Amino acid sequence: MVLEADGKLMDGTDVAVACLLGAEEFGFATMPLISMGCLMQRDCQQDTCPAGIATQNCRLRRGFRGKPEHVEHFMLFVAEQLREVMASLGFRTVDEMVGHPECLRQIEVPGNRKANLLDLSPVLASATCEFGAHIPGADGRHFLPQMAADSELDKTLDSTLFVPYTADARAHLRPIRFRADIANVNRCVGTILGNAVTKAHPEGLPAGSITIDCDGSAGQSFGAFLPRGITLNVCGDANDYFGKGLSGGEVSVRPNPHATYKFDENIIVGNVAFFGATSGRGFINGLAGQRFGVRNSGATVVVEGCGNHGCEYMTGGLALILGEVGQNFAAGMTGGVAYVFDQYGTLDARVNHESVELKAPTADELAQIRALIQEHVDATQSPRGIKLLYSFETMSKHFVKVIPIEYERVLAIVAAAEAVGKTHAQAEELAFDIVTGRASAADVARFDVAGGAAGAGVTPVAATDSVASTKKEA
């Protein structure tokens, strides 16, 4: 393995100490930021960075004066100082310097009794290879390429089948569809194919260009980072991180048609499905484990129920849950929207209300829900979806909209600004200024009709009544 050291590496001397202790790679954060103008104000989370680095405020960003050359010059100074330290110790290369703690000694810190009580001798002791000494290279002080673990990427399903079989389709944009057998040892299925697509087509392929139907049990991270134009379907089940980082592609999973259990009452994908998805679509005919849709920022996903912490830290996209959810639903959710089929009135008690509110969907939103259910049925042949389509007129009253309060406020401001002729970018900047208190009183009065959490009008009351009614019916 390669050992990396980071944390307050400020100059060449710090790098030399880390290297002597065994590090071969070095991570920098604070000093490159300072070289770009960071003032170490230490309130990055407040969105008030005067240097224009840690902020979403367009006006503050205009004050950013950093250049790549600034970081380049800093790193050259670090390298120069490191070279001087190496020369003083008699080392010609960094590789020679790695793992020589005998060149370090603990010094007394004048006037600091507690620091002088610290005994660093165990850290500065030279390592001895007691176990596995018979293995060639086990006593090496630094990473040896010949001892690296073989990841066998050339033997993966992508490398042996998906990439070569789709070469002509990718080169000439000819749609292709085929099937493949998979097992849970096949991890990150579709990722290497996605990499090949993105290299040649940075914006992805036309919709439906590559469709692969997989039979079996998908391993972890099935369809991870899948770009636009690739569709992966699973007939069976899938492990954790299904659709992780989805980037425009489409994934679906449905049970084997010969399964004897109820699909909408059994888990078919593991935990953390669609983690960090940025775009694309996903359809799950069955239940998902915990932390479904965490950090989703743009994908549209449909599932028939999920475990605890669903849609946690979601910042965008859309989640349609056609069943019950677990505890702490929508915790830290700041963007996007979730629609939950709350037939038994359990949603209100399971939602984390800190940043979201429950509302009744509008007629247009119900039409969107119905269209998504139809897509879900087309992709997975979901029995639950078919039932909902047949009785949608009577069952639609059980759908509840979960939306972040401030997010809805921003959407309303943007819509109002665009209605008077502002561009989308101008409307977003205006909304940002209003929400952060930087806008004029006239703009607030004109565009911020909602007025924050209190301005959602009478709709939240209607939603509350709707939720209460579902509880009574249950």
Q: What does this entry look like structurally?
A:
The protein is of the alpha/beta class. It contains 18 helices and 14 strands. The strands form 3 sheets. The chain has a 10-stranded mixed beta sheet. Strands 1-2 form a two-stranded parallel ribbon. It has a two-stranded parallel ribbon with strand order 7-9. Helix 1 links the parallel strand 1 and strand 2. Helix 12 packs antiparallel against helix 13. The chain is globular. 36% of the residues are buried. The C terminus is likely disordered.
Strand order of the largest sheet: 3-4-5-6-8-10-11-12-14-13
- What's the total number of strands? 14
Using only CA atoms, what is the Rg?
28 Å
Give the mean pLDDT: 90
Number of helices: 18
Structural class: alpha/beta
List low-pLDDT spans. 452-474
Please state the overall shape, judged from the principal axes of the Cα atoms.
Answer: globular
Write the layout of secondary structure elements.
Elements lengths: L3 E3 L5 H9 L4 E3 L2 H6 L22 H4 L6 H22 L4 H4 L15 H5 L3 H4 L32 H9 L1 H6 L3 E7 L8 H10 L9 E9 L11 E9 L8 E8 L12 E3 L9 E6 L2 E2 L8 E7 L11 E7 L13 E7 L5 H4 L5 E4 L3 H18 L2 H8 L1 H4 L3 E6 H15 L4 H12 L5 H7 L11 H15 L1
Parallel strand pairs: 1-2, 3-4, 4-5, 5-6, 6-8, 7-9, 8-10, 10-11, 11-12
Antiparallel strand pairs: 12-14, 13-14
Give a brief outline of the structure:
The chain is built from 18 helices and 14 strands. The protein is of the alpha/beta class and 474 residues long.
Considering the chains and any ligands shown, give keywords for the structure.
474 residues; alpha/beta; ten-stranded mixed sheet; two-stranded parallel sheet; 18 helices; 14 strands; 17% strand; disordered C terminus
